[in-house]
């Protein structure tokens, strides 16, 4: 079991637990949480906070017949049935020992496409939000991404391998949220390729013209 | 206001005896608060009424899977309503949000009874969160409540607390950090 060093800030976990995170970021935060016992416990705290705060809300006025209607509805509840388990959508292969996060279960994941020497990418499409900008990057050992910053925020979950971007090392299981205050150039550590799941709100802003071309290929 | 022990007892009556008066007690306590939560999150009055009914029907249907060793009734019902709201938003494709994976959802039927350690942890979690909330300054508790449930909380917090819009985000962060400190060494 690898040790996880980089976790989502509270604001992400509170938003996830409150159910108000957009689907792209939620997918990436979920991918982190499912692999991180520490953050699973933090999410449970946030859910308990939701329950405690629910108790403190001012009661709203319900329609006068609301209870009667609900009591009638529970009479018509069908016997619980076990919902058939949908098979997970087919996905391209990952390196041995690495599994797709469960949060990607129903997403379509395109085959790996060439992006540059030693670099491949794949579009992740969410069935309920096809416009969400989510993708995978698969970068070879020792390779680096062009230097860039972000117009809003980019969330990254490392699925395997590790990279260093001058701020820190991010390894398998680590999470990162990078915004306009961060201009970085992720360099994959030698020895193993690195695969990351990323969600971008806004745009990734590359420094050079060729790098911008690179970004336009992924639709960043 | 019923205590959490009373709510748990009422929930047991619903689960084991399919007790309709007990269900009505749950409904009277939670349904109006769920409606407030849903409307704060951007639902219209009629959508909120629909969702409240759907959530309370789920409470009836899933009552047997409620495990007081895992969460308090209010937490369990909150997660049911939250998941239904997300499901509905997904189906309508209007607002794009995503729920926690089913395996982690509190309202999923547990495969096994909670392990003793989990049980202690869950009871401590619920107690600690409530104790911490009670220790917060009223202004910070209000900020948490508004920022947790509101669809667009910043303008509302600014007007209710009469503070500049630009400082709302840092106030939310302060309130969350304060709560986190009160919750103790979880964040290591």
Core attributes:
heterodimer; A: 220 residues; alpha+beta; Jelly Rolls; three-stranded antiparallel beta sheet; 5 helices; B: 188 residues; 2 domains
Question: How much helix is in the residues of chain A?
Answer: 25-40%
What would CATH call the homologous superfamily of the domain at 108-218 in chain A?
Answer: Jelly Rolls
Major interchain interface with per-chain residue totals: A-B, 58 and 75 residues
Q: Over all CA atoms, what is the radius of gyration of chain B?
A: 18 Å
CATH architecture descriptor of the largest domain in chain B:
Orthogonal Bundle
Q: What is the overall shape of chain B?
A: globular
CATH C-level class of the domain at 108-218 in chain A is Mainly Beta
Q: Judging from the principal axes of the Cα atoms, what is the shape of chain A?
A: elongated
CATH architectural grouping of the domain at 108-218 in chain A: Sandwich
Low-confidence stretches of chain B: 94-104
Total beta-strand segments of chain B: 0
Figure out the total of helices of chain B.
8
Largest sheet of chain B: none
Number of helices of chain A: 5
CATH homology superfamily of the largest domain in chain B: RNA polymerase sigma factor, region 2, helix turn helix motif
């Amino acid at each position: 079991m690898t040790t996880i060093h980089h976790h989502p800030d509270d604001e992400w976990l509170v938003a996830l637990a409150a159910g108000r995170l957009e689907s792209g970021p939620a997918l990436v935060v979920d991918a982190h949480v499912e692999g991180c016992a520490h953050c699973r416990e933090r999410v449970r705290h946030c859910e308990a906070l939701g329950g405690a705060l629910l108790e403190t809300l001012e009661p709203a006025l319900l329609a006068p017949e609301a209870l009667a209607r609900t009591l009638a509805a529970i009479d018509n509840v069908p016997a619980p049935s076990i919902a058939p388990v949908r098979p997970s959508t087919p996905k391209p292969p990952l390196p041995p020992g690495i599994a797709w996060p469960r949060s990607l279960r129903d997403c379509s994941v395109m085959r790996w496409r060439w992006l540059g020497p030693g670099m491949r990418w794949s579009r992740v499409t969410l069935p309920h939000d096809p416009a969400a900008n989510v993708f995978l990057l698969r970068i070879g050992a020792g390779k680096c991404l062009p230097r860039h910053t972000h117009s809003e925020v980019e969330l990254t979950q490392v699925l395997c391998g590790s990279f260093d971007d001058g701020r820190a090392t991010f390894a398998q299981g680590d999470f990162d949220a990078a915004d306009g205050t961060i201009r970085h150039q992720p360099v994959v550590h030698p020895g193993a390729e690195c695969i990351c799941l990323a969600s971008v709100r806004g745009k990734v802003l590359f420094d050079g013209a060729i790098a911008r071309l690179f970004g336009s290929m992924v639709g960043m | 206001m019923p205590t959490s022990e009373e709510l748990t007892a009422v929930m047991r009556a619903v689960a084991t005896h399919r007790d309709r008066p007990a269900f009505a007690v749950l409904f009277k306590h939670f349904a109006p608060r769920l409606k407030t939560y849903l409307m704060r999150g951007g639902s219209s009055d009629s959508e909120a009424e629909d969702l409240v009914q759907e959530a309370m029907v789920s409470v009836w249907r899933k009552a047997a899977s409620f495990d007081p060793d895992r969460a308090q009734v209010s937490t369990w019902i909150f997660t049911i309503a939250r998941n239904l709201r997300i499901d509905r938003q997904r189906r309508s494709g209007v607002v794009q949000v995503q729920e926690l994976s089913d395996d982690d959802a509190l309202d999923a039927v547990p495969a096994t009874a909670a392990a003793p350690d989990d049980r202690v942890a869950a009871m401590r979690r619920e107690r600690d969160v409530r104790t911490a909330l009670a220790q917060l300054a009223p202004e910070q508790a209000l900020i948490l409540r508004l920022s947790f449930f509101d669809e667009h909380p910043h303008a509302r917090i600014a007007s209710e607390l009469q503070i500049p819009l630009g400082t709302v985000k840092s106030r939310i962060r302060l309130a969350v950090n304060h709560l986190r400190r009160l919750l103790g060494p979880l964040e290591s």
